[in-house]
Amino acid sequence: MELLGTGLALLGAALAVALSGTGSSIGVGLAGQAAAGVVSEEPDKFMKCLILQLLPATQGIYGFIVGFLTLIKLNAFNGFIIESTGAFISVSGGLGIFFACLPMAIGGLFSAIHQGKVAVAGIGLVAKRPEESTKGVLMTAMVETYALLALLISILALFIPNWA
Amino acid sequence: MSVIRVKKMRLLAHSSERGEVMRFLTESGAVELTPAPLPEGMRIAHDDPSDLASKSAKAEYAIYFIKEISKYLALDKKAKSVRLNFKKENKLYDLEEYFRVKEEEDELFAATDRMKALMNELVETKSRMGRIAGEKEQIKDYAAIDVPFDAFAGTARTSSVLGLIEEKEVEKLNAALPDIPGEIFVYAGDKCAAVAAVYLKEEAEKVSGALAEVGFQRCPFTYGSTAAERIRELDGERDAIEKRRREIIKEGTEFFPLLEKFKLLYDAYALDEEIAAVTEMTPVSGETFLLEAWVPAAKTESLKKTLTEKCEYVFVDFADPEEGDTPPSILKNNRFASAFEEIVSMFGMPGYNERDPSIFVAIFYFLFFGIMISDAGYGLLLAIGCFLVLKIKKPVKNSGRMMTMFAFCGIATVIWGALFGGWFSVTLPENSFLDKLTWFNPMDEPLKMFLLAIGAGAVQMAVGFAIKGVDEIKAGNVLSGICSQFGWVILFIALGLLFPTLTLFLGAVRVDVTPEWVSVMADIALYFAIAGFALVVIGGMIGKKNVVKAIGGAFGSIYGSINVVSDLLSYSRLFGLGLTTGVIGYVVNMLADLIVNTFFGGGWYGWIVAVPVLIIGHAFNMSINLLGAYVHDSRLQYVEFFGRFYEGQGHAFKPLGSSPKYTYLNN
Questions:
Q1: Count of the separate structural domains present in chain B
Q2: For a FRET experiment, which of B5, B436, B552, B614 has its CA 20 to 30 Å from that of B283?
């Protein structure tokens, strides 16, 4: 049972990476379908569409960062032994890290999906008025604020307390 | 630093000199036409520009044709590829050159007609190829039968049929063969088997019944040749068409050198259309015409000189804009700030009497970009890459503005990257030169990074409030300017004073004993905060008629402060994006390390795999973060910064001669 804390923390890392990755893939997928439609009619708009398609990809990256920072926090690359205590992380510490990962996991999942939907609308905007594409990009970026806030809290919650 | 002053030009000239006048106005590049009020006795003449439209459509078709042919050529692997530029030519053209190309329009349009014919033929060959392929597909199942199709005609007493059954029915047919009268021949094929049946006429019913059971389909062909002969014939036809197709494409490539001329021609008509549209704005009477336009104040003298010297019957007069006019906005900035004008104009140009925010945007965009990328290695690549492109391509007019901006941003990234110790995310050797440059590593001290991000945001927002405050005071709203705007500035100063306390409280910097001055500053901060907050609340009450409305206004500004706080938190994206670059870069390096040391046991050959991984990984990291930094940095300017003071309802200066799509007019 000494590894229960480590397991819980890893579960958090896994959720952060997997859920926000799922969200991003859904978002990027939605936008990609729309982008392909526009590009099939007007290949010149490829770059503009690609930028919009890529925007919901960031949640996956944020989730990945939270997962990776969790691994660093757990000292995963050196046998999971926490330096300050010389032992595996406690159950309470693991649970704490698990909860620290949740904002990114959940926030990333939903914000990426919704950002994908806005990106689809933005791609529609590019199709009709390509000169306004920057505005579409900005509208899409608005959604990302909440993923960033989730990332912020996840990282702060990972690092401020002295999980051991 | 500012929106430059413009004058309204009023020009009265003789119609015989109309062409000359328009030409000088176009060449000056400093004249934006505006509809002139219609004086009594004058009228508006209407031009029909549909002729121009059809001509420019022809030029456009020629460009399209060349593009299509170059696509066909790219598909053909044997042909050597030609790189053609279908975008704007990076070159300045004199107005003369547009006139000259119009003189050649007969030849050019003859070429266009030929292109149309060629394109029609090309489309035709495509459909014929399709038909041939279709027929070949149907006929190939009969290839094993070496009797012409029309041989299956029957005689006085016999009948014969030819057709297909599906391959899987062959066994069933073979089993039934002994019971079927006449002679049945089965030729196995790919998916279908050809079946030929010869039988006496009185047995027709029996035979066709048996064949129907295996799904027999009668052959529709009645050629006088065998299937194999017919296929050879079709192949011959196909080769001929293919040859013709190549000839067409080859002939098409002969038009490639004309591309630039067609671009010029297209734009020549675009210019003509622009000038024709002017007709709608210029009242005429008898032999004179009247024209009104906006001209930058600095250009008025030289323009007047040119016009009066070159034309005989011209009267020009300049006046300041009047109340109710909407003059265009022309920004004038130093080289650094003008590179960032694109960011401003994307949001909206400042109104004629509004402040030009370019210099502030430039400074903050520059700083934030560096924090967001936070890797000096990437910054170096970006700066060197952009400066090289600028040096080699030498973009004309404003087309290189964005590139210059990214070059500057690259420099900012080098500075911040060096402070963060980010050099392609490599762990720096202790006490090395680069390590000594490092202030702190965001990955080790994320809290410090977070506070830096919020601090940077607080500075920008305070500047935003201060600008608005100054503008309001200038506009005469002294009280509200001081209370609502500078109240916030004081609040942000309080936040700044509180910063050391916050730093210690959150544990971003660890000290054993809290120094005295920290708590002293926190005390001062408290008074500042109270003063600032009071000012903001009072600001909300200013100008309200009764007590109820004043209290409502006070609550309004308290509620509004929630927005300010959420805007401030929005700057945490600096922290998020800054960290992202470092972490992904770190992972890429770790992957390479894993490949070399774990998979290949430290041998040199491990690097053969690791180097591409490093290059692709870092290229991915750099591009995704560049995109992120560009988007989020813009957002911080637009929402958090401009939200404080900037409206951006002006319109950009659009002088005569700015219509060309494929070329740049030298004016």
A1: 3
A2: B5
